[in-house]
Amino acid sequence: MANAKGGWRTNKWVRAAIPALLLHCSIGTVYCWSLFSQQIGDHIGFSKGATEWAFSLAIFFLGMSAAFLGNIVEKDIHKSSLIAAICFAGGMAGTGAFIWYGGNHPGSLVSLIGIYVCYGFIMGVGLGTGYLSPVKTLMLWFKDRKGLATGLAVAGFGAAKAIASPIMEALLANLGDGAIYKMFFILAVVYFVMMFVGHLLLKKPSDWHEPASGEEKPSIMAVLKTKPMTNYIGIWLMFYLNITCGLALISQEKYIFKCLGLAAFVGILSTCSAIFNAGGRLGFSAAADKMRDRNTVYKLIFAISIVLTLAVVLTGGIVNGNGNVILTTLVIALIMMVNAGYGGGFSNVPTLLSDHYGMSSISAIHGITLSAWGFAGLTGNQMASLIVSKSATAEVGYQNVLYVTLVLYIISLALSIFFVQKSENTGEVPEH
User: pTM score > 0.90 for this model?
Assistant: First the structure.
């Protein structure tokens, strides 16, 4: 409920939840790249594999910009959210311009490099700052349910693809052949407006005061050293491995569905996986609010993933699943769980870090931790593609990917159990 004196100005939904959704639902559309990477490649005269690097670079620079610009977010969320809006929309418009150029000059490296710079680097900076900007604000406004609050915003990031995909496909259908660049110009305007409104609304609660400019504040390393460094290393590594496993399978899920004889249902199943991705972000983080140790959620995610992956490995589910209802169901269950665990891993990181290291430097620490996302963006889907390309058949290749992800999930569970210390989750935000 809004405060009677402050009205909407002191309403946590208006000042935190809505702007977070506006920001995250905009930048989350980066995942739509796979929908038209082939079309862009054909339009500018390059292979689908060449254009897919634009997405990998976007995720890499998301992580790197979050790591290096976390202190800016910590000091001024209005500056960082404005940077996010300008870079994301500007990068999208620039991508459209270079697609247009490539259509008129097929095979020109200028167009491909321009797309890498705009979609990869410039939009990547917008992604990193936009992802971080609302997180601390949400946890400050929703002190008693900070997991639910961050889960809601991060769910918006996960659901953005499911929401935007049909809109983009409708735009492409109505703009005509060869006019894909127009879609990027239109979306650049739409997302800038959405993000700019989010930027204007976003505000920390009045009872929270950041340190004054002259006030001494502990360095990030000093904060991390309040616990053994193995604790933070464990969090970073299990986050990185969870994303790597998630990307390895999510990037191949459409082809796995086709191997199972479900080509006619790929669209429906992909929508379901996006729902599980978003649901995992919201559900696992909300559940963690009720747990004394938020790390329990990660143990649960890794344990279920191990059991389902092992079941598909032992039964040869992908190779033998076509025509077998039980094995097909088992593989689908694995993919849905991987999506849910992938999303849940994201939504619980900021709150897990705040439980361990407090709120005063959470944006900067969260930003450094998101570097794991950047590196996983370069390794997850590329690793899966390499394994599949080196295997006798695609079915065998997808099955072989599971052997690797099984080992990585086991390592992640071990890190969660033996490296990450128990931290009592009180659901409260320490006062500064």
Answer: no
